[in-house]
């Protein structure tokens, strides 16, 4: 039996001093772990129609696209400013180490679309909360927020109050 957490390594002081970064690249590089994670993430999704899967740059793209394909849904990338070629909507938010802004194409989500939000790790919840605001601005309805892992002591779920939040494991 594969313990997926064994394939996540800690990188100390990245991206700045005092932050421990959860690096998923060892998991991505191991075919068995990667397949198990993809299957397990799909099993977290409720048995409802999903119209769009929203993946957060960039690590949310790896499994987000796989989930979209398996769910018969479209995929929506959320990116840092000036990375998307069409007209966008933006949301600025607080990080544990500063502020950032994310953008999504203005026409990526239609009013009433049922949306699965996916990212690799739930930390403080600021990034996911900002993306929820983008989805709601576009008229989407969030069905679930889906993560590989959750850093529980950072209490990111508090910023996602009112949302269904699932993670494969906690740190």
Automatic annotation (TrEMBL):
Protein name: Adenine phosphoribosyltransferase
Keywords attached to this entry: Cytoplasm, Glycosyltransferase, Purine salvage, Transferase
GO molecular function: adenine binding; adenine phosphoribosyltransferase activity; AMP binding
InterPro entries: Ade_phspho_trans (IPR005764), PRTase-like (IPR029057), PRTase_dom (IPR000836), UPRTase/APRTase (IPR050054)
Pathway linked to the protein: Purine metabolism; AMP biosynthesis via salvage pathway; AMP from adenine: step 1/1
Single GO cellular component term: cytoplasm
Record's subcellular location: Cytoplasm
Function: Catalyzes a salvage reaction resulting in the formation of AMP, that is energically less costly than de novo synthesis.
Annotated GO biological process: adenine salvage; AMP salvage; purine ribonucleoside salvage
Primary location group: cytoplasm
Endpoints of the signal sequence: none
Domain Phosphoribosyltransferase: 41-145
Description of how the protein assembles with itself and partners: Homodimer.
EC number: 2.4.2.7
Broad EC category: transferase
Family, per entry: Belongs to the purine/pyrimidine phosphoribosyltransferase family.
HAMAP family, per the entry: Aden_phosphoribosyltr (MF_00004)
């Amino acid at each position: 039996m594969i313990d997926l957490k064994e394939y996540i390594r800690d990188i100390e002081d990245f991206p700045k001093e005092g932050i421990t970064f959860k690096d998923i690249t060892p998991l991505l590089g191991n075919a068995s772990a990667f397949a198990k994670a993809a299957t397990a993430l799909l099993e977290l999704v409720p048995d409802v129609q999903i119209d769009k899967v929203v993946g957060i740059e960039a690590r949310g793209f790896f499994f987000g696209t796989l989930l979209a394909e398996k769910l018969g849904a479209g995929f929506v990338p959320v990116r840092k400013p000036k990375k998307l070629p069409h007209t966008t909507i933006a949301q600025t938010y607080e990080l544990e180490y500063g502020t950032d802004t994310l953008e999504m194409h203005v026409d990526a989500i239609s009013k009433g679309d049922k949306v699965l939000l996916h990212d690799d790790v739930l930390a403080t919840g600021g990034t996911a909360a900002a993306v929820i605001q983008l989805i709601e601005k576009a008229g989407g309805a969030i069905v679930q927020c889906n993560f590989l892992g959750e850093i529980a002591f950072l209490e990111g779920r508090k910023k996602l109050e009112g949302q269904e939040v699932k993670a494969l494991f906690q740190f």
